[in-house]
Every structure is written in structure tokens, then in C-alpha cells.
Amino acid sequence: MSSLKTGNVYSGFKVVHEEYIREIESSVFTMEHQQSGARLLCVQNQDDNKVFSVSFRTPPVDSTGVFHILEHSVLCGSDKYPVKEPFVELLKGSMKSFLNAFTFADKTMYPVASRNDKDFSNLMEVYLDSVFKPNIYKQQEIFEQEGWHYELQHTEDELIYKGVVYNEMKGSYSSPVTVLLDRIKKSLYPDTLYRHSSGGDPQDIPALTYEQFLAAHSNYYHPSNSYFYLYGDVNIEERLQFIHQEYLSQYTRNDFDTAISMQQPTGMTEFTAEYSILESETAEDKTYLSMNYVIGTSLDRELNLAFTILKNILMDSNAAPLKQALLESGLGKDAFAFYSDSMVQPLLGITLTHSNPSSKAAFLDLIRTTLSRLAADGLDEKLVLAAVNSKEFELREADFDRYPKGLTYNIEVMKSWLYEGSPSAHLEYETVFAAIREKCADRYFEQLIETYLLNSQHCSVVILQPSNTIAAEKEACNRKQLAEYKASLTPEQLDQLVENTQNLLTRQSRPDAPEDLQKLPKLSLQDINRSALPQVPTHEYTHNGIKLIHHEIPTNQIAYIKLYWDTGVVDTEQISYLVLLSKVLGQLETDAYSIEELTSEIGIKTGGIHFQNEVFGAAKDSDANYQPKFSARIKVMKGNIGNSLQLLHELLYASNLDNLIKLQEIVRREASKMESILNQKGNEIAASRLLSYFSDRGAYQEQLGGVAYHRFIRELAHTIDQQSERLSDTLKDICAVLFNKQNLILSVTGASDIYEEFAANVEQLSLQDRQVELKPVLKAQDHASNEGFMSSSQVQYVVKGYDFNKLGFTYSGKMQVLKKILSLTYLWNAVRVKGGAYGGNLILQKEGILLFTSYRDPNLQETLEIYDQAYRFAESFEADEDEMTKSIIGTLAMFDQPLSISAQRRRADRHFFEQITGEELQQERNEILSTTPEDIREYSGLLKAVAEKNYFSVVGNETRMKSAQALFGSLEELVR
Prior knowledge:
single chain; alpha+beta; nine-stranded mixed sheet; 36 helices; 28 strands; globular
């Protein structure tokens, strides 16, 4: 560990503050580079998953998305690394545990992470050169590719806009939630930067000029406006020396003003806006009503934490009183709240969905009367304690799953550091929790309701209404503007546009020079561990007829308990009801507890009890192609395991499934949520539908969350008043056969003392024991339905694929290298760079699944043609030793990601159910390590065979889909 001292200077960096933060077991050094004015925070500890980032304060002055486009563009070549896309080259050949960039409302962050020291240095070096010395000043085509440009391949063609960010944001603004959040910020912050869309509004993006783009970089990407961050087991003096010598020593302080101003209170404002629905959709019951409040500043750590907890009390828990009042009112079908503290003035939003404009007054009145009652009568003390405990459990657990821990802390740091506050303010929490607990007895949360909500002088109501015409009107306006612009051009100017388009396509098609690729820092296979990640030690036991598995790893005194029931005992006609069962458990009162009491008990005694449906792949000793499970997941501190199992028993066997009113409410809310998912996750919906054509597992999963489930829940919601008793009986029947020790496997993750406590208390579950029989499994029809689903989206999600096992191919680890190469070379260039989509990818799974996918794609037929031609890329594939090594290393990085405790538990459970051995994992790794260009060429037959099966599914824009109607077996509306 470093011995830096406050007041000393190291490579130009002066240490201005030093402290030890017990909550994250880290020494934290705050520094300033004296010559350039750059700020740096080092969070030093023993974590080998090291994180580096450089961030900039980037307050937008309009909605052209300039900082979002810069975020993309600076990673497209730099002084030291003049290849077209160093970012992609790093994705291909780095052992990174994280590599990306973020555009927030007022900042842009460039984080990287790796456990490999050499790789970490490489990532730092490329990112620093990218942000400070990008090629954007030399190559205008970068701006045109990543931002926007006029596309005209022939003078007689229709003029269009094209660009990666442009199409990304067209997809984003197709979601009503994006539009809602945008309008909320406009209503609350009319005089500050937050009224603008930092990501870019598609209507405004084409107003951005290349000169404005360059000026934004010149002004804002200066060290004086930068925030460096280092985390983990790093050699801090070595890193400081590199940053200083290679970059910061070349700069002097800049006094360019990037200050973020505060919005003065606006009183109560009202804002009305529209979002797009299909022409044939009804507008009834599709309005969003949102009441929004500005809450202090993000520098007030206690207030921020308190409002996170208060949001949970009022709107998130199963007994949340404000949410219950909104749902029981009948004014809408679902309600949610969000608290955003990544701005200098945080906001709380309370939103009712599937409502109507005429309900606005009643909505506002209900919020005020409910909050007034809660403030006057007091919040339920146990609900408050449960919410406080839940938040504290979450922070102490510090299990951030897919994000490195250091990156999560980096984002937290910026919530105060960006606004001249203490960078450690959002890392510390013990003192704040102690203060909140002490104040709870003295109407603390009730006073917050009175001060910041009931007596707010800075709030708004936003009414977001559906429109059948707004999308067509915007499209017609765009086409008219483009046509008028084209008509105003001289023949010479038209020729110049065609030449510009061709120049961009030429640049995109031209391979990087070998000598430029050689300039990129790289790893060798000697830097890579040739052994597969070890499996979690797993022990199998049988206890009183129950099969138990114990994953023995340290978990900081937290027990992770998972119960898996085989849903093969449930009739195939009832599969979708299993989703509803996972929703109702915990939302109904039980024999022993009211819903308020139950929620409090769970929050006070556990870290949460959750239910879900999961589908594992085939086991080797079974003829079935998949293993469907209904699971219950418990997180609980050691010493409280018995209490948690008693609570689970109560949920499983004593939930009041006869509460028909509550069941009706849950069904309507679930239908509302599913409709939102369809509108926001077109890629997942298209992939799920396609898999259901040919995969038995996919057919089952489609009943749990795809179009099939949406149709089920939509029809049930329409008839729930008449069907609620039948629903109750169906759920009871499922519970009777499902929650049975005969079809249960129990998983426990923790040290040996955790397992011992669990084993001593397992009888608290009091599980039923009855004979059950497995029902016939659901199977795919293996038919190319090739459905197209029209949505209000402005872009497409195009998915094509098949089961390669059925075509006579056998899985090998070499296929994972094929996936890496196709995704980051062929598809990246054809679908994203040239096609303008936000993403294109190859999904390849061991069980036989091969899918081509695109994300926020302006194209449709063109993308399908790209998929069909992938085999030609493979059959002519050539790569030298360096390029092949890069692809192998990048592939191994997917397998060597550091795993959180939750991820380790999930991996261990999957290995158990699918009977995956350490020998198989090593064989797969050996196959990856031995992959050659010839192997990739041999897979051209695989790609061609999958393409020729011609199984595909598309979710996309109504007009574009109708113009391609002949492609589809059927074409229908996604949301009816």
C-alpha cells in the first residue's frame, strides 16, 4: 500500500486530503495536479479488480447530443493509436473486466477495469490518448459516422440522415419512459442545463455542426475540467508518474467556466407532452401522470439517503401506502417512483401509468391527501425500520453484480465531487445511518414529507399523452425538410454530397494499416492463465428427503439460500401462471401477517425474499432438453436463518390466494408492466420469439416473458373481473403440486458455519411431502413462422438464427472465438459502422443456439442480407498471429470476469444442474486457446447452414415493417 502524505507532491500531484473509509476498507487520497488543475482521487485497497476512469463536467447548452457524440467519437482513433476504432481493438484483445463510456446529464465518464496489471496499463494508456488527443480534428468522417450525416449514394436517391448516435436516440425516444423523464427535467429545471437532453433529441441532433463538435471537445476535455479516479491494488506512484509525464505535463490551467448553476424554485408547474403509439391503437388508458419534486442538493448525503429510503417506504415495498392508494383508486393500472441523485438538484418522481388526462386532478388530490394523512398520523414504525434495514443491508453487502465494485464507487463519488463537494461523501454511510435511526423516533420521515413534498416550492406535474399521429408527423416533417434542402442544392453540391457519402463508406471499408495496429499495446498468451476458473467447492447432502447443495465460499456472514422446485409437475397450459405466482407471493396477506406486517418482518429479519422462474439447460443424465424451475431466493445475515425460513414457509403455504381484489390489481399491473417491456426491449422480444420456433427451452421461456406471455396476461387482464376466482383456483392447484419436497433442490452459499446453521433450521420450512408426477414437456414446433411485430419504435430489432445441433454441428470452444470475431469485426462494421445501427452481435450458446441480432437498427432487409453473407466473411477469413492471439484473449476475457458472490452462486447452481465439470471447462478453454484461422474458415458452413434455414423475427417501425410485408410469414401489432 502507498505511503502518500498530505501536503507532499508526487509527479506534479499534491495530496490535499487523506482518510480511511471503514465502510469500503480503503485509504482514500484526494489530489490536485498543480500545473494543469486536474483532480484525482485514489481509493486504495486490496481489490485486484482495478478501476481507472477520467471524467469531465459536460453541461449541455442544447439537445444536439454533442457530448454523447463526443463520447463515441474520441474512441475512434488518436495520436498514438491512429486505427479507426481503438475501442473495438481493445474489446477484441483485452482481459478487461469493464470497458465502456457513459454520458450523464452533466458529466461524461470513461472507465476501464482489469485484474491483469499489464492489461490495466494498456487500457489506461489508450483511453488517456483517446480523450486528450483524439483524431476528430483530423477526420471529420468520425463525427459523421458516430453523430450524423447526410446520406446520398446517388443523386436521384432520397436524402436521409444517418449516424450511430442519431439512430440510438431514435430508439431511445421511442420509449415513453425516455420521453417522460426528458419532459420532467424540462418542467423542473427550465433555466439550467438539465432542461436539455445530453444524449441528444433526434429532432435536434442534425443541428449540430462539426465546428461546434470540435469546440465542445476543445473547451470541456481539458485537464482543468477533469476528474481522474484510481481504485484497487494499484501502484499509485507509478500511475501518477505516467499520467503526469505522458499527458498532464503538456497542459497549463484553463479558466473556462463549466460551473453548473442551480435552478431557483419554480413553484408548481405543469407540462403536457405526447409520445407515439401505433395508428390503430386506442389512446384510452395510456396516459402517464407524474408528480415530481426537487429534493435539496446531492451534496446533502443524509437527505439523499433518507429520500432513497422514503421512496421505498412510500412506493416500492409491497405495503407501500402511497402506491396502494394510487392502485386502489382505479385512476391507473400501475404506479412507480424514481429518485435521481446524479444531478446537483435531485428529483423524486411519482408516476401513474395507464391513466387518462381527465384523471389529473384526482391524481394530484390523492397524492396530497395520502401524504397529508401519513404525515399527520405517522408512518408505520416497522415499515420504516424495514426500509432502513433493507438499505443498510444493501450497502453493507456491496454486491454490484455485473459492475466492478470500484466502478460503482466511482459513480457514487461523482455525485458530490462534480459539484465541489467531498468526493468521499457518498462512500461513507455508517454515521449517516446512525443519525437517521436516531431521528426516526421523532417524526423524521414525516417531517421530510411535509417539508419537501407537501410544502414544496419546486415541483411539477407532467401529463404524457399517447398520440397516433406524432411519429408520422415528425417523419413527414423530417422528409420535407430533407427534400427541401436537397432541392435547394446545385448539381455540384449534390455531387459533393454523393462524394462525401462515398468517402465515408470508403473509410469504413478500408482496413487499418498493419503498422497502425502494431502501435496498440497488447497482451500475449504468456500473460494469460491457461487454466479455467476453478469451480466453487460444492457439497451434496440429503436431509430428511430433501436434496441439499452447499457452495462453500466466504460471504461476509451473509447466507444466500435458493430453493428450486421442478415445474415439470405443472401442466403446460399453466406455465404462464407461474409468472403470476412469482408476483403474488409476498404481495398478499398471510394467515399470520397483514401485508404491512409481512413486509416489515421480511425487511427487518432478512435482506429480501424473492421468487422467479428460471430455465436451465439439459442435464447429461436426462432426455429432456431443459430444466424449468420455480425458485425462492433468500439473503439473510447469519443468526437469522431460522426466522427467514419460517417467513418463507408462511409465504408458500399461508398466502391468501382468495384475496380476489388484490389478484385483480396484480394482474392489471402486470399487464401494464409487460406492455412497457414490449416497447422498451424489442431486441429481447424478437430473440425470445425466434427461439420459440425451434428451441424447446426457448418455447418454454417464451411463455414466461415473451409475446406469448404478453398475450396471456393481456387477455387475462381484460377478463379478470370475471376470471379472478378461476385464477385463484389455478394458483392454488399449482401451489399444491409445486411446493413439495419431492421435487425440490435446496442451494446454500456461505462458509461452513452458515451451512451448519441452515441445516439446524431447515425443518422450519415444514415442507409438504406428497407424490407428484412429471407432465409432458413443452416442445417447439420447429417451424419458421418468421413473424414481424409492428411497434411505435422508430428503429428495428432484427434477429435471425437456428439450432446448429439440428444441422449436424457440434459445439466447440472455438465457436466462441468465431462469435468474438464476427461480432467485433464483420457485424460491427456492417451493421453498426456502415448500417448506422447502435449494435450488431452474434449470440452463440453451448446448447446449440446461434443468433444474429441488431439493436436500434434503421435497416431491415439490408441487415438480414448482412446475416446471410456472414459465411462469406468466414470462408475468406485471414489473420496473422497477432490478430488471432488478440481474438483468443478477448474471448477468454468473457470467461475470466471477476464474479460477485451472487454471480458465483448462480454459476455454481448452473454447473450443478447442467452437470458441468471442471474437465469440460478446461477442455473448452483449451479449444479456445488452440483456435486457428482455418477453424474460423471451416465454420463458414455452419453460418451458411443457419442462414439458409431462414428463421427470423423482427420488431420494428410500423411503416418500415409494412413496406417489407412480403418478407414475413405474418405481420401484426406488437401491442394491441
